[in-house]
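Project standup — Tuesday

K.O.: blocked on the structure for the chain from last sprint. Re-posting the sequence here as requested.
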Amino acid sequence: MKKFRKVLDGLTTSSPGGTIGSPSCGSAAGTPTAAPTPKEIDVQETLVSENFQLCKTVRHGFPYQPTTLAFDPVQKILAIGSRTGGVRILGRPGVDCYCQHESGAAVLQLQFLINEGALVTACADDTLHLWNLRQRRPAILHSLKFNRERITFCHLPFQSKWLYVGTERGNTHIVNIESFILSGYVIMWNKAIELSTKTHPGPVVHLSDSPKDEGKLLIGFESGTIVQWDLRGKKADFRIYYDEAIHSVSWHHEGKQFMCSHSDGSLTLWNLRNTAKPFQITFPHGKIQKDGRKESCKPILKVEYKTSRNSSEPFVIFSGGLSYDKAGRRPTLTIMHGKAITVLEMDHPIVEFMALCETPYNNEVQEPYAVVVLLEKDFIVVDLTQSNFPIFENPYPMDIHESPVTCTAYFADCPPDIIPILYSIGAKHKKTGYSQKEWPISGGTWTLGSQTYPEIIITGHADGSIKFWDASAITLQMLYKLKTSKVFEKPKPGEGRTAELVEEDPYAVQMVCWCPQSRIFCVVGISAHIILYRFSKYDSNTQIVSLEVRLQCESEDVISPSETENNPCFSDPSSHSPQPQHQHPASPSSGTPEGVKDSIPCLRVKDRVTRMPPGYQAELVVQLLWVDGEPPQQITSLDINSAYGLLAFGNCNGLAVVDYLQKTILLCMSTLDLYGATDPYQRLTRSPRRNRQSTSVKGPGRKLSLPTDLKTDLESRENSFSRSRSSSVSSIDRDTKEAVTTLQFGESYGRKSDALPTPCLWVGTSLGVVLLIPMSIPTEEEERLEEPVTIGPSGAVLMLKGSVLRFAFLDCMGALIHNPYEVWRDFNAPEDPDRPRKRKLVNFSPSSSQDASGEGHLAVVCSERQAKVFLMPSQSCLFVHNITESSFVLRADVVSVCNSVCLACFCANGHVMTLSLPSLRPLMDVNYLPLTDMRIARTFCFTNGGQALYLSSPTEIQRITYSQEMCDNLQEMLGELFTPIETPEAQNRGFLKGFFGGNAQTFDREELFGEAAAGKASRSLAQHIPGQGGVEGMKAAAGGVVGDLARARIALDERGQRLGELEERTALMMTSAETFSKHAHEVHKNCWERGLGLRKPG
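H.V.: unblocked you, prediction finished:
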């Protein structure tokens, strides 16, 4: 708690009656009042450092660069590994967990400890990790680093604590999962193959225990060699040498046959009775050519051989195997069931697939019901229970990257009605034809947290589409999709200037501006265009209005400061009269005859009446024009205010203000002309076009105008900063462009002499200058649609270091002043004579929240380098804080946290900071995320409630919180990955099967692999690393009564199983002893009778 007082001189007072309830009208200049009196401002700052803590909350989207997957058939949860060391674990909707290996090494393979709440990951740095999933945030319990051999394949039998690990050298090691220590039992490659074989069999590509006998291990080598190893006898039962390289092996559940997939596109079926040659060889996609030879086919990378109770025919599912001559064919998954062959074409290459089966036991009928297919950029699940194999509707947001994300916006605490209405309209456009069955990955538990409020994330994409997402309660669900490209005519090949400006993605979204209360939505595109949308629940037939703006300036056409005072551009009523659809309004550069011939926009707006479905409907398009063969500079800033009916945007040439109600351009000026006579640098007018760097880019790598090279961007920022620190004209290049970097409409004081707040536009530039532009807006609805809006720069200038990023306004009590807005009304709704539709405005004037009017307000201004708080209307600087000297701020927002407000900043050096308001005390400074990619800079955004997000990869959104309260409540908000479930009982195999077929349950791995029998492994082979989770983490994870009961039940089951095994062994020993006793008695009797070495008594 901090209380500060500041005595402020020169603060004007006004008459008590001067309150404002709506956007004010009249003169932009206020009436001077009585002599200024000192005013004392008391602000109770409630935020302290203890209110802040930074942590990741949840990650949404498709795992970037996936490598492998695994499924727990009892818990019904799925894990996906990635090339960057990430692991995503998915269950029912809401159960979505992200883990990251610190090493960042690619995840090669995943193995669930089925129904035990644990996961083994094998990484490319030859380390095995054991993750504890019995806690909401999984942690590593153990790691084992192999020093001399590279891991290529792992296999963990169901209900076993011994993990088989195959290596690149062809050896097979065995790891105890409980202690994560290597056993001394090793299957060396030279023992596995025949001694007479001279060539190395290659890396181990497959390991599996025989369904018929767990004491038999099938080892597949890359070269085509297959060995069944008798673990008890420590010898090979059989060896198969096949000509083609092996990619995968799959058993029939009876353990008498197995199938292999090969590099030549063939499948071989092997019978254990005769392993000299394959029982069957098939080329599923290889046809016989005219000359009698088979077509050459691509490798079959994986095959699964599954049986079903309802059919005598097994399922054979495989990926790849297509013939080489069919160029351009998409990747396929083939499902063979009897004579029926179904080929499913995929949009992306298949990384891996897996059949989901009813039973976890490999010696039972498998009964596959679905196939999970992991693609390079998608994730689908196919329903095997229906003959047409439909896919399931995916409940996770795996299509964020459907088109590359180019910008994001995050809105917390939205109006509660906005999410249902967006969902209802978006649901009408959903795809159909999905499987009617429930999503099969249904594990874990998730409940709606106690602290939930409506949150919306908006993503803009390279193809011009916009997606609205429901982000409430740390989940993500698509609500509504908008395609901005529908506003424009499709360009014909080589037509227009679009191809020269951006070869790809001419509709790419650069920024969005949304007013949730009025539902007005604005989109800025890469082709220097702005589209304004209104929301309607009804369809309409409308013609889109198009405005064209020449935002360029020539030195000979620039208006001198003396002309600015009476410039008709600001207030001439004729410029506000209704104009035709395509407008070419007067602007500083329209005088040259040569420029007129090139006055065309980048895109062509549809010039006919268009039917628009319910949802967001385009009303107005504003486009910048080409001038003298040069493309328009891209738009760098945008703001819209629904209460004022105004839209402002700027670029490196200047500023334009559009009245979207009257469809007219109010202001179109170069940045330099906005100063008038108050230019702090005393620059001469100049033409930016003399030294312009064209935005035309050749080549496919360009998606946006945003910098892709961080070093170049840093250098340009440094140059900008060095210029902004010096006020001498010699330090500023006269051809330097001063871009408009941020804009903000609001009720403020345009001049120091103003007594009452009026509508103003705050303008921030790349040279650290803040300009105030007061406006006079008619208040009556009819007048507003007919009378002109008066607008003109006031000459008020404030200075900061570095490019200006953000404005916000506080009242004199330190509370945030929200922007005025118009309450949403549906323009297409049927007319109701009893309730005529009128504009309803909600205004948050600085004086409306206080007893005495005219107390002024505080303006928070943040730049790349520093933050300042000014008192308005005196424009005196109350507080200043230099945020960074060595870096620069990328994103800054004034946000509400814990019923107060603060300034949140994200710097290029990765620091996330918060500052108190208005005193700008540092509250938090965390070195969180080094800026390695401009994608992060482009998409990072803060929102209220202590939350933020950024695009952590091209396909994933990472949400974080900087609120201690949310960090404390995060455990309750996250889903539980593990739920206590009894392991299904194995089917009764029958007496004869168990007696003659070899009982797998009697195989005791402990006797073979334990230290007593196998000894210790070489210490130099692998190094054990204890994890941060530790044993305590495992014990604490399944806390609570349910966890205790589950552990007790598991312990009892294990004890009962051990007792049962002990009883069986005791019975066998007793039988054996009895047999031995009888045998000994017989021998003794025979000896007596024959008198061999025994004396008779007496």
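K.O.: great, moving the ticket to review. Residues 288-397 form one domain. DSSP finds 16 helices and 65 strands in the chain.
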